[in-house]
Design a protein that fits this description.
alpha+beta, ten-stranded antiparallel sheet, two-stranded antiparallel ribbon, rod-shaped, binds 2-acetamido-2-deoxy-beta-D-glucopyranose, signal, angiogenesis, ANG-1/2/4, disulfide bond
Length: about 500
């Protein structure tokens, strides 16, 4: 700092000096042109200098030489005569005036030039100085602050480096992350693509299935409509068939009515015929030949008429002739058979009306008919015989001396007396007026059952009793443990179905 101060002091000195020198020179020139100015004003003008003194200063490598002005000659300056002619050279004594003869103009110009170059030199020096000073100043300041700056710079650099490394690290990480993200993204994109592909496939399949389903539905609806058509056709056919059936039924009914009418006519005709026969017989009686052939009231009459062969005969009963089977062998013959079974060819599950009128083949399995039986046995006192045969070849019979069958209004009740026979010690038929029952007329003595339905056939069911010869015909091997078979309890037990039966009547006094 001391160096700096010294330098500044030198600079100020130099400046002061330079200024004075320039002022001096200017004053001399002016004095040459206008005396009043130069002589009057400048007490300190150098025009009066007689000698030069040099002062040299050594500063480092550089040395500065100063030309100092002499002050003693300057006191007597400013006399009017001097100033009248040439001002400066006469009145005031200057170094330049003395060194060279006063040459007006040219010399002044030279002087001025010299001054100017000096000044230029000085200026250059000054510049140099300034530069130097500035340089040194800068160096000082730089030296002072360089450490801090270095430190700061280092710190900054360090920080910067750190930042840079951090940044680089982050960038690297970022790149990795970016790559990962890109990979993920691409993978996701691939998956998406695949998904969309499979979705497309699925959609296609779905469309296909949908179309198939719709086709199936169409088919189904077509089938349904067909089925409906068929159904309606069938319904129509059924309706037609029902109508046809009704028509046929009515036809059958008409035919049945016609048959009945025919039967009636036949009956009338036959009665007419028998009447004619009777008339003929009477006529023949009167003429002397008496064959009362066709007026038999039963098989006993037939037998008495000389027919001793079992078979089909016609008797006269209830104003009409009736075909009957006559047993002419059993126990003396003359039996009118009203029930016969031996091979199951005829169904005995019949209605009240059928049991009343009779059914079956008279020369085979049959039921003669309750009405005929009633009419026949009402004519006199009759006996009953029951012939039985089992599947083992055994035969047995039951006989009743008295047999009575009431009318239909009294439900064809059966009264029996005088039991005898080999088919059990006791009667398997109830003897005290049991009513006849069929599936459509329940006259039995069972309060809570219908024996005709349970045991089948028409019979004089008690509750339900020990016999039913009109049950179901079971063939051999199937005839055991059958409650609804052909049963005669006191012969073969309650569940044995017999092989053949026959029931017949004959007048008690035969
Ligand atoms: C100016 O300086 C140069 C050297 O630096 C010197 O040669 C020259 O004579 C000087 N001129 C004057 C007028 O002092
Ligand atoms: C430079 O910084 C360090 C710590 O960073 C410190 O210890 C040292 O004093 C500092 N120097 C200067 C000249 O500031
Ligand atoms: C993407 O990930 C797969 C499996 O994870 C790997 O095989 C593949 O090299 C990765 N690709 C890139 C570019 O990282
Ligand atoms: C025979 O039948 C007719 C009707 O076909 C009847 O008019 C006539 O009286 C009957 N004769 C006798 C004898 O029953
Ligand atoms: C048979 O005819 C006579 C008269 O022709 C009649 O009185 C009698 O009631 C008839 N018998 C039956 C069972 O129809
Ligand atoms: C049962 O007997 C009758 C008369 O003899 C006969 O016509 C019929 O064919 C026989 N039926 C059976 C199934 O044996």
């Amino acid at each position: 700092m001391k160096g700096l101060n010294l330098t500044w002091g030198l600079l100020v000195l130099l400046l002061l000096w330079t200024f004075s020198a320039v002022t001096d020179a200017a004053g001399a020139e002016r004095g040459g042109r206008s005396q009043r100015r130069g002589g009057g004003g400048g007490g300190s003008s150098g025009g009066s200098e007689k000698r030069r003194r040099f002062h040299r200063i050594q500063h480092g490598q550089c040395s500065y030489t100063f030309i100092l002005p002499e002050l003693d000659g300057c006191q007597g300056g400013g006399s009017p005569p001097q100033t009248e002619q040439y001002g400066g050279p006469r009145g005031g004594t200057s170094v330049v005036q003395r060194d060279s003869p006063p040459v007006d103009g040219e010399w002044s110009a030279q002087k001025l030039q010299h001054l100017e170059s000096t000044m230029e030199n000085n200026t250059q020096w000054l510049h140099k100085l300034e530069n130097f000073i500035q340089r040194s100043m800068r160096r000082d300041v730089a030296n002072i602050q360089s450490h801090v700056v270095h430190n700061q710079t280092a710190t900054m650099l360090e920080i910067g480096t750190n930042l840079l490394t951090h940044t680089a690290e982050q960038t690297r990480k970022l790149n990795v992350v970016e790559a990962k993200v890109l990979n993920h993204t691409s993978r996701i994109e691939i998956q998406l693509l695949e998904n969309s592909l499979s979705t497309n496939k699925l959609e296609k399949e779905l469309l296909l299935q949908t179309s198939e389903i719709s086709q199936l539905r169409d088919k189904n609806s077509r089938l349904e409509s067909k089925v409906q058509m068929l159904e309606s056709q069938q319904r129509g056919e059924l309706e037609d068939m029902r109508v046809e059936k009704n028509r046929l039924q009515s036809v059958v009914r008409n035919q049945m009515a016609a048959i009945e009418a025919l039967e009636r006519q036949l009956r009338v005709a036959s009665s007419n015929n028998s009447a004619l026969q009777r008339q003929q017989a009477q006529l023949m009686d009167t003429t002397g030949s008496p064959p009362r052939t066709q007026m038999w009231r039963d098989c006993a009459d037939v037998y008495k008429a000389g027919h001793s062969v079992s078979g089909l005969y016609h008797i006269y009963m209830g104003n009409r002739t009736e075909p009957v089977y006559c047993d002419m062998e059993t126990s003396g013959g003359g039996w009118t058979v009203f029930q016969q079974r031996f091979n199951g060819s005829v169904d005995f599950q019949r209605s009240w009306r059928e049991y009343k009128l009779g059914f079956g083949d008279v020369s085979g399995e049959h039921w003669l008919g309750n009405e005929v039986l009633h009419l026949m046995t009402s004519q006199a006192q009759y006996s009953l015989r029951v012939e039985l045969k089992d599947w083992e070849g055994n035969t047995a019979h039951s006989q009743y001396d008295r047999f009575t069958l009431t009318s239909e209004r009294q439900q064809y009740r059966l009264y029996l007396r005088g039991y005898s026979g080999t088919a059990g010690r006791q009667s398997s038929l109830t003897t005290h007026g049991t009513a006849f029952s069929t599936r459509d007329q329940d006259n039995d003595n069972c309060d809570h059952c219908k024996c005709a339905l349970m045991l089948t056939g028409g019979w004089w069911f008690d509750a339900c009793g020990f016999s039913n010869l009109n049950g179901i015909y079971y063939t051999v091997g199937h005839n055991i443990r059958k409650l609804n078979g052909i049963k005669w309890h006191h012969f073969r037990g309650p569940s044995y179905s017999l092989r053949s039966t026959s029931m017949m009547v004959r007048p008690y006094d035969f």
